[in-house]
Design brief:
The chain folds into two domains: about 110 residues, 3-Layer(aba) Sandwich (Rossmann fold); about 140 residues, Sandwich (Tumour Suppressor Smad4), CATH 2.60.200. Strands 9-8-19-16-11-12 form a six-stranded antiparallel β-sheet. The protein is built from five helices and 19 strands. With about 290 residues, it is of the alpha+beta class. The protein starts with a strand and ends in a 10-residue tail after the last helix. Helices cover about 15% and strands about 40% of the residues.
Length: about 290
């Protein structure tokens, strides 16, 4: 590692105390450090301009929570630069280390004691009744189609490769990657997928049914979610959200078509930390085989 870029969520590191700590560790190892600026969007969010990231950086260190890392993954998807997450939030499932482990983590990173995992992303587009087409940003976690505002239950139909799988009435449906399977998908009763699995999970949200279950499909499949007309259809019937960051309103008969993206997110994983050990530590509940990990 000769040149590293740092992206800091200033709401999590207000006075840049942690950022300066990392800069000092990098400078002591003669590593060039570049601090990326985050720009505010009109809705109060933040983003990083990929055009302002030096093309010769070896990795990007992201300081913040899972939301900060997801945003960085979106912003830098076209660059293919590995991302190393340091959690300054709460759960921080995507991050590789906590604030307390920064010194050791930086030492392992600079010593080359790490692996790079390629995480699949989702590509999606909205198709309207008048043949309008809108390409949505790629998703690292999930794409969620849910009821909008104070609307009642929505009806959606799910198709796999053009074949009807099921009709759901409820709060909506989640299309998740393996990375996102431990997020909203898990809370909705969906399966946990190993990060290396080439799969997508389709999970209904609060379905008004006794037998609705998640469906796992191959990354080679194409998923279509169609918003159906209900008895009291509203102008804005539903909303599609990408990784909780980007959303688009949907009308009855609109369709969201989802497939595997050609882009991937590269996450740096330190040696000795497996997916299952992180799973036990973060959300395992602390039961069995010795209790709390």
């Amino acid at each position: 590692m000769r040149k590293i870029c740092i992206i800091t969520n200033q709401e999590k590191d207000e006075d840049f105390e942690v950022t300066r700590q990392i800069q000092k560790l990098l400078c002591q190892s003669s590593v060039e450090c570049f601090l990326a600026e985050r720009f505010q969007t009109g809705d109060g969010g933040y983003y990083t301009k990929a055009s302002e990231i030096p093309k010769d950086v070896d990795c990007v260190v992201v300081l913040g929570g899972d939301g900060t890392l997801l945003q960085a993954a979106h912003d830098l998807a076209f660059l293919g630069i590995p991302i190393f997450g340091i959690n300054l939030g709460t759960l921080g499932f995507l991050a590789e280390t906590e604030r307390s482990g920064i010194q050791k983590a930086v030492s392992l990173l600079l010593g080359g004691e790490y692996e790079i995992e390629k995480r699949m992303m989702l590509s999606a587009g909205r198709y309207g009744r008048e043949s309008q087409k809108e390409i949505l940003p790629d998703a690292l976690n999930d794409l969620v189609i849910t009821r909008s505002g104070f609307s009642r239950l929505i009806a959606v139909s799910v198709y796999i490769n053009g074949e009807l799988v099921n009709n759901y009435r409820g709060d909506g449906v989640i299309i998740s990657t393996p990375t996102g399977s431990t997020g909203y998908n898990l809370s909705a009763g969906g399966p946990i997928l190993s990060p290396s699995a080439n799969m997508m999970a389709v999970t209904p949200i609060c379905p008004h049914s006794l037998n609705a279950r998640s469906i796992v499909v191959s990354d080679q499949d194409t998923i279509c979610v169609r918003v159906e007309t209900s008895k009291k259809t509203q102008v804005e019937e539903a909303i599609a959200t990408v990784d909780g960051n980007y959303s688009v309103n949907l009308k009855a008969e609109d369709q969201i078509v989802i497939s595997r993206s050609e882009h991937t997110t590269k996450l740096i994983r330190l040696n000795g930390r497996s997916f299952f050990s992180v799973l036990r530590m973060k959300i395992g509940g602390g039961y069995g085989n010795g209790g709390v990990v």
